[in-house]
């Protein structure tokens, strides 16, 4: 992994803060977009929660539950969550910015983590990777010989601090509600342009 790739993988969360400012600046939410976005986001949160309840980082190669469909159900859930955020923001500019960020950063992160798992679990991971796709899920669950056993664990969900994703999404919806009430359908960018033009 080259230096730039390693830097992006390491700083992806911090990169999200200025990104949030940009996408919120162009957001044009209304009550319908926020409601629909929230509904989509709930699906993403559920998928992330479901995956977090199985994941035991660096302990075992998790191949059951949602990991029998895709090697990265957490990031798949994040993608659905991001789609919900974009819908709630009701802005094609925000959608493009967030889409490009997600596609580039999370592809790098998934490939980086794939290398770590390959180094840690060797042939077991190679067998798993041949059967289960990186991101887009299979239709039916894969049966991995010698794969991990187990069921969803609420304690594991808590250990992975997955509640933070829920808090973050609720906070985002709250911010969008404030923007909607303050701008009545115009983006912050649009209001700024009107001010500059003297409208």
Can you tell me about this structure?
The protein has helices spanning 3-25, 31-52, 73-89, 92-121, 123-131, 154-159, 163-183, 188-197. By secondary structure, the chain is mainly α. The protein has one domain (3-197): Four Helix Bundle (Hemerythrin (Met), subunit A). The longest helix has 30 residues, at 92-121. It is elongated. 28% of the residues are buried. The mean pLDDT is 86.
Q: What's a concise summary of this model?
A:
By secondary structure, this protein is mainly α. It has helices spanning 3-25, 31-52, 73-89, 92-121, 123-131, 154-159, 163-183, 188-197. It has one domain: Four Helix Bundle (Hemerythrin (Met), subunit A) (Up-down Bundle), CATH 1.20.120.
Keywords:
199 residues, Four Helix Bundle (Hemerythrin (Met), subunit A), single chain, 8 helices, 0% strand
Main β-sheet: number of strands, strand sense, barrel status?
A: none
Low-pLDDT runs of 5+ residues are none
* Number of E strands: 0
- CATH architecture call: Up-down Bundle
Structural class: mainly alpha
- Which percent range fits the helix content? 55-70%
> Mind telling me the C-alpha Rg?
19 Å
| Average pLDDT number | 86
CATH level-3 fold name: Four Helix Bundle (Hemerythrin (Met), subunit A)
Q: N-to-C SSE series?
A: HHHHHHHH
How are the elements arranged and paired?
Elements: H1 3-25, H2 31-52, H3 73-89, H4 92-121, H5 123-131, H6 154-159, H7 163-183, H8 188-197
